[in-house]
Amino acid sequence: MFKVLNRLLRTKVITSSIDELSESFKDFPSIDASLCPNNCNLCIERCPSHAIDKDKKINYIKCTNCRLCFDICKFKAIELIERPIIINENSKNIEMFRKQFKDSVHIRYVDTGECNACLFEVNATSNSFYDIDQYGISFVASPKHADVILFTGSIVRNMEKPFLDTLVAIPKPYLVIAVGNCACGNNMFVSEYAKNNLPDNDFIDVYIPGCPPNPLLIIKGILKALGRIK
């Protein structure tokens, strides 16, 4: 026991802030088309998720962070930046929500059918390194105690009703945050038998794309939804 206590006393504080970590989490490719020769479309042809269009623009949601385009570009036209977080401009909830819940929120997490990669990243936000609680953000077991619904996965058919029941149970006003490419609308199950019957995803207020997004990006997405960072 004394050895454990001694090690704990010798260990410095490992919890890090967003500002300290931001520089080390630049993993999203950005293309400067002016540096590309007219006849070079190698990145478009080789992209496994077809995230690069003919104008050399990258779809935030389709990109899976494989960085193949960055590795194969011979013209140094691609740099790595921090992945953007997307706010639904049509959302009517965000402004009202920010007035009431800017400093502290409780989150109900829902796994709607995924590979568990995003689940692991969401879990990591609560460890002692990222420590999401330092920002006044905590996870709760019931939607009735929550202010935010954060979900991962593509809302497969068997999870459609439980997910919609969760949206009914949570008090208003609330926000819905989609974490990961599948939740954001680009997923491998889009044409499979397990797909849901939801007409659209207009109920989502904040999109945090990635396959999977890292814990820092998830925390930043929540803080951006609250209006605490730009």
TrEMBL record:
Keyword tags: 4Fe-4S, Iron, Iron-sulfur, Metal-binding
Cofactor: [4Fe-4S] cluster
Gene3D superfamilies named in the record: 3.30.70.20, 3.40.50.12280
Entry's Gene Ontology molecular function annotations: 4 iron, 4 sulfur cluster binding; metal ion binding
Domain annotation 4Fe-4S ferredoxin-type: ranges: 27-57, 58-83
InterPro entries for this protein: 4Fe4S_Fe-S-bd, Complex_I_20kDa-like, NADH_UbQ_OxRdtase-like_20kDa
Any Pfam family: Oxidored_q6
Cross-referenced PANTHER family: FORMATE HYDROGENLYASE SUBUNIT 7-RELATED, HYDROGENASE-4 COMPONENT I
Family statement: Belongs to the complex I 20 kDa subunit family.
Protein name: Ni,Fe-hydrogenase III small subunit
Organism of this sequence: Thermodesulfobium acidiphilum
